[in-house]
Amino acid sequence: MQPRPLQKKNTMALQFWNTLKRKKEEFRPLQPNRVGLYTCGPTVYDFAHIGNLRAYIFEDILRRYLEYCGYAVNHIMNITDIDDKTIKRSIEENVSLTEYTRRYEKAFFEDRDILRIKPATLYPRATEHILEMVEIIKKLTEKGYTYQKDGSIYFSIERFPGYGKLSGIDLSSLKKGARIESDEYEKEDVRDFVLWKKSKIGEPSYDTEIGPGRPGWHIECSAMSMKYLGKTFDIHTGGVDNIFPHHENEIAQSEAANGKPFACYFLHCAHLLVNNEKMAKSKGNFFTLRDLLDKGYDPVSIRYLLLSVHYRSPLNFTLEGLEAAKNAVERIQNFYRRLRLIPGGITGVSPVTENVDQAITKRIIQAEKEFKEGLDDDLNMPVSLASLHNLITDFNPKLEKDAINETESNLISNYIKEIDDVLTILREEKMELTAEEETLISERETARKKKDFAKADAIRKDLEGRGIIVEDTPAGPRITRKQKHACLAD
Ligand code: AMP
Ligand code: ZN
């Protein structure tokens, strides 16, 4: 029997809890098979804490699952490299804003790679989109949504009737014309928010058509999402703390400027907690990824812990929880390794000669169905992970008794490899390279060390033509083989 090609098509509709509608809705993208996804990125004023990383892992699972379902995802994540916090810290350290923020931008990309988060399609920086922000503010002014006060420009929320539709805030106690200049504030402080802040001595300032100054935080994300995804796009995400005021303000200024809906689906992940309090820099109750790596924890266990709880459930972080995640990951990795050790069991390349026990095929189909049903239901990861652990529980006794043949082992390990496109928790396998490819890679390394970047780039291009991707990381070059994109749904 031939190994069964696994079905990627959804049997049940993919559904998400849409914060905007306060209910679960079937996901229907604006264009068939394509998704425009905007995820609020890091404010690069310090190392990310693992609460921030929970949000990025949730977004990684969302992105990877959409791709698993066959969608081509255009994923934009901004870098907030100008705001109250970045400016304050760079002034304290007496370095330029660029020098200061690039340091933490680099650290963010390192954390991303360590946690196996798939790079976004693009990471636009706020400081490189000032003109786009100015254009939106000009349009809002022409349409009468703004006013000036003491050299800053504010958005008047009472002129936008939809204000509050995302967060459901109560506007009845709103004091006409009360404003707030800081980027972050609480619901109790609902007021007109700042679009453009007047320049202050010692702060970065841009000379623009709307006067000298710098942008408020919220306008940054409106400008960058619209530029790369269009005025109306599919999905916008962040942590629940982004609902108010950040996303509420993004909606107000974008929809007021465009006269069109902004994002169709808003998804927000719950917080990572410590002793039942939000993990936050300001509370001092945080761990960075580096803190945990220094304690000897493995990045894949951290990834597993952060993805294993439903994204809308708060997750209380403990080191015991991290230990449990480590055990769960090892169980999956060991099961996969033992399957691969079955003689001749090289996934997908060996000729199929042996008979397959139909019960095994059925069991894989059932596991795949449960895995998909879990994630189709608003990314219910606990259900999907349970389907994998139950499969392992059912097959482990057979493995013990050497009762799984080569073809069967290929079927099971193919399935696990396939869902690992979403989970990304298996041990990285050593890539098989030809002697010629090995030589090219080492020639490129030599060229790079000699700073002959033209030659290094030419070899990289050559390798790319052979389907081999070389990325330079702090730990040396990372070599991967180009993945074939998942087939698109009809
Ligand atoms: P920031 O760099 O502060 O703009 O935050 C980056 C992302 O992390 C945003 O999507 C926040 O909503 C999210 N975030 C911040 N703290 C936590 C937390 N404790 N748990 C989960 N997500 C968080
Ligand atoms: Zn944002």
Q: Could you walk me through the main structural features you see in this protein, from its secondary elements to its overall organization?
A:
The protein is an alpha/beta fold. The protein folds into three domains: 15-291, Rossmann fold (3-Layer(aba) Sandwich), CATH 3.40.50.620; 333-426, Four Helix Bundle (Hemerythrin (Met), subunit A) (Up-down Bundle), CATH 1.20.120; 428-490, no CATH class. Helix content is 43%, strand content 15%. It contains 14 helices and 16 strands. The strands form five sheets. Strands 5, 6, 7, 8 and 9 form a five-stranded mixed beta sheet that branches. A four-stranded parallel beta sheet has the order 4-3-10-11, sandwiched between helices. A three-stranded mixed beta sheet has the order 13-12-14, covered by helices on one side. Helix 6 (243-258) links the parallel strand 10 (233-239) and strand 11. The two termini are 27 Å apart. Bound molecules: adenosine monophosphate and zinc ion (ZN). The site of adenosine monophosphate (AMP) has 17 residues, from helix 1 and strand 10.
Draw up the topology in text.
Layout: E1 15-18, E2 23-26, E3 34-39, H1 50-68, E4 72-77, H2 84-93, H3 97-114, H4 130-142, E5 146-149, E6 152-155, E7 179-180, E8 192-198, E9 213-215, H5 217-229, E10 233-239, H6 243-258, E11 263-269, E12 272-274, E13 277-278, H7 289-294, H8 299-308, E14 315-316, H9 319-340, H10 358-376, H11 381-400, H12 406-423, H13 435-449, H14 453-465, E15 468-473, E16 476-481
Parallel strand pairs: 3-4, 3-10, 7-8, 10-11, 12-14
Antiparallel strand pairs: 1-2, 5-6, 6-8, 8-9, 12-13, 15-16
Helix pairs in contact: 1-12, 2-3, 4-5, 4-6, 5-6, 8-9, 9-11, 10-11, 10-12, 13-14
The site of adenosine monophosphate has 17 residues, from α1 and β10.
